[in-house]
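Entry 14. Ran structure prediction on the chain below.
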Amino acid sequence: MAQVELKNVVKIYDKNKIIDNVSLTVKDKEFLVLVGSSGCGKSTLLRMIAGLEDITQGEIFIDGKCVNNVHPKDRDIAFVFQNYALYPHMSVYENMAFPLKMRKMPKKDIDAKIKEAAQILNLTELLQRKPKQLSGGQRQRVALGRAIVRNPKVFLMDEPLSNLDAKLRVQMRAEIKKLHQKLQTTFIYVTHDQTEALTMGDRIAIIDKGIIQQTDIPQNIYNNPVNTFVGGFLGSPAMNFIKSDIINGQVNINGKSFELNESQKYILKDRSLVLLGIRAESFNEPDANFNFPAAINIKEMLGNEQVIYFNANNKECAAILPPSLKIDNEILFKINTGNILFFDPETGMRI
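Output, structure tokens:
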């Protein structure tokens, strides 16, 4: 078990700053998810923790020890790769045994560890098969088993489910989460999939252009994003951002104005323009509260809900509504004004 701490970590490739002064603490036994779009630096950060990439500046600590100059094999971590990285000529048993043989562990101890890991991961019946005889999900479980037998202080996982189909990803998400609960070890998990981040992480760290934008529990990040990048990255559909003038304490959507409450007026008192951040589920059928009209662009029926795409102040937005609601070419939307967030139109930062 171990805490992982990054202090002012920088990575520069060819004069380009890939990781920009990142400081982050992953608590002992925590499941932390690093999430961001492709090329944001999340995998580079993970590889620096593992020792597979040198750092340009800063310090990395594992279990209180600075590991900047410690070889990867001596950091007591296990790395689970996106492509499984199994030896094709070896059986499942031999793949799982390989790191223990490298440590010259007695055969009796190796056998006990492999059988224990195989039982945890439902691999007992597959131990004599070769990787080519396994499904994608089974191969990923073997990769996890190879990591488990080492009993590391920290598990590092680099998009381990990205090669699986949608149904299998859901199943494997649950299996990895259960594995974390069983092992009670520190997990750092990299993904570009926001659903994986929201469902798996004790906390999420969102990265953009090598900078951590926000770190918090999933619910706080979803409900209280610090900027438009975070608000737009998490959520499906993404948070809507509607630009509006502020005139006499009122904002306007599609020609309809509504009054801000006193605390909202105070927050926006020195502003004439604002970005309204509204989640898709904050729209609903009209009632006595603020309503505005919108022409419907597209309707998507998803079984238990329908997603409606429409224009608000010349920006396409999305709303999630009950499937029973009949919608023609136009609709009146109700907004719960208490759920609206405010962002600076220039910086994108939360006001």
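The mean pLDDT is 92. Will compare against last week's run tomorrow.
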